[in-house]
Structures are given as structure tokens and as C-alpha cells.
Amino acid sequence: MITAEQITFAFDGVTIATERLAASVDIETQRRARLEQFKSEAIAAGQIDGKNAEAREGQLRALLAEDYGLLEKAARDVAQDRMLLTVAQLEVDRCKTLLKLLEVTQ
């Protein structure tokens, strides 16, 4: 019904998914910090002169479009990696359920 190899594979999947999520969260954090630094530098350099917050944000998005794009990609990667971790955890739960079922039926 279930083998030790399947159980090991399931737990290894959680480990790999957790490590991958940690790496993608780290990248997202770095990109967010970098974007905030660039925004501060642009404002300090007088490159942003919008009259209200909405206008300033629009100017920042235009000026730092590539960095905003990188941050958005990093956020998508985090979401994808969270989903992969959830799937891996579901596989571990499935293995645990099968083991309990084996205990009950034997």
C-alpha cells in the first residue's frame, strides 16, 4: 500500500519545497529593499516632482519599471513556491493517513 521509499520521497519533497520557498522569499525581500532604496535615491535626486502621492508613484513606476517588474516576478515566484510547499505537505499528510489506515486494518 505504501513503501518506505514513498514516505522518504514525500518528506524530501517538503524539505526541498521549504528550501525553495525560503530562497524565493529572500530574493523578494532583496528586490523590495533594492526598489525602496532606488525610490529614495530618485526622490532625493529630485527626479520625482509629482504634486501628490499618486503622481509621484506613477513617476517612480515609470522610472523604475524594470525593478518593479523584477519585484512582481519575485512575488509570483513566492506564490508558486508556497503552492508547491502546500502540495508537498499534502503528500506527507496522504502518507500519514495511509500509515494510519494500515495500522487500523492490521
What's the gist of this structure?
The protein is an all-alpha fold and 106 residues long.
CATH architecture descriptor name: Orthogonal Bundle
β-sheet strand percentage: under 5%
CATH topology: Helix Hairpins
The helix/strand series, from N terminus to C terminus, equals: HHH
Distance between the termini: 12 Å
What composes the largest sheet?
Answer: none
Estimated structural class: mainly alpha
Integer tally of domains: 1
Query: Approximately how much helix is present in the residues?
Result: over 70%
Shape: rod-shaped
Which terms summarize this structure?
88% helix, rod-shaped, mainly alpha, 106 residues
Give structural notes.
The radius of gyration is 22 Å and the shape is rod-shaped. The protein has a single domain, classed as Helix Hairpins (Orthogonal Bundle). The chain is mainly alpha-helical and 106 residues long. The protein starts with a helix and ends with a helix. Helix 1 (4-44) runs antiparallel to helix 3. It has helices at 4-44, 53-63, 65-105.
